[in-house]
Fold:
Amino acid sequence: MSEVTEPALRKGVPAIEVRNLHKSFGDNEVLKGIDFHVDQGEVVCVIGPSGSGKSTLLRCVNRLEEPTSGTIMVEGVDITDDETDLDKVRTRIGMVFQQFNLFPHLNVTRNLTLAQIRAKKRSKSEAGEVAARNLAKVGLKDKATAFPAQLSGGQQQRVAIARALSMDPDMMLFDEPTSALDPELVGDVLDVMKQLAKDGMTMMVVTHEMGFAREVGDRVVFMDGGVVVEQGKPEDVLGNPQHERTREFLSKVL
Amino acid sequence: MKRSTRRRLTRGALYALFILAVAVVVALADWGAIRSNFFDVDVAIEAFPEILTVAAKNTVLYTAIAFVGGLLLGLILALMKLSPVLPYRWAATAYIELFRGLPALLVIFGFAFAVPIAFGWRPPGGSAGAGLIALIIVSSAYIAETIRAGIEAVPPGQVEAARSLGMHPSWTMISVVLPQAFRIITPPLTNELVILIKDTSLLFIAGMALGDRELTTFARDMVSSSANATPLVLAALLYLIITLPLTQLVAKLERHNKRGR
Structure:
């Protein structure tokens, strides 16, 4: 328990370490024994066809999905352990959703301050300062009082990123962050993510943006049928895939 | 015959039929009897000011008490019905099904007469208090189902977003789910309110003290004493003055909600 409350940036401990993870929905086994890790400061892009289990893997990392079996360590703490304070761990794992999931009844600033006040027990003024700083970081300083419905999809997603950043997370999970966007809005969101990576943020990105994976990813993981088929440097996996299934997938998306 | 000509003739025939029907009613109605029995100015003057200061005031007051009470109890029941703990779900379901299945009149009667006799306990506020407890109990059963539907209509991504930010389930419910749920259910909740305004008329069965009478009881007593139906017409007008703005509000909110989606 006490481990969880400390900033657990011990050297050499992976930010995320998944061992032999299985996940079934009823009779349907979606993850069939995944071993996976993300080092501190690393940007890992997870690619694969729809239904390959990549989103489920990402959602298991902050236990939005309950794993069927296996262990998931976040900064050396087993989050499948009942003793672990899940809410506290989650404040250190930022998450960005495909559908943004902004709170539609709150304006942008209150979207960014709500969890700071409720989960991090920050004062309203401190939370407001953090919110303003992160809004500036995603280029939306002038939208502080707007409501989500008044923003474009790209702006909403950048607000969602700023909301996650306002918790000062050690790592960020992105679940297909640009898949719900009009093509002309994708660039702004990817630019924010590139800047985050440049600043040294640990990132796990489930994506169909092969250009982003190639340019920003330290490592690319290809999943299919609930297993990790192949992983390595982006230029290797994307440029010279070793497995037939990887080649087949890449020939369809590239 | 051209189609447009035919349509104009049909339309004209329908207008003629309507005017004929109105003329028949006007010619056959006993206007003298209607005026002296339903629109007697002297009886109407006698109804004031008590029909406003006592009866209408009590109708509004009882509605407000029953609605606020029904909302609070309904919210608790809705949360119980969504609880992961099975006995809570059973208890809430049993309560809701029971009180939605019974006539409100029967429940009011039970609380006004059966409960005091059986347990020797008189609810605070006398007959009016007993009737109000019954109204709260009945309305909470309906409101609980409305609130539950509203909570379930909030997209699951909202809960996931709040939980992924480390927010506790109860804070997630209070600051993320419930505000959105109540926005969704404002039209049906306003309908519940309108129904409740009319259901306060059922309190007459409890036998109200003079100062506790609401519109229907007041009008009924006055009909007996004056042998004239004018107080009923006055009560009807006052009910409409209270309910019509609310039903208009519901229509407006429904249009607004449709546009928002």
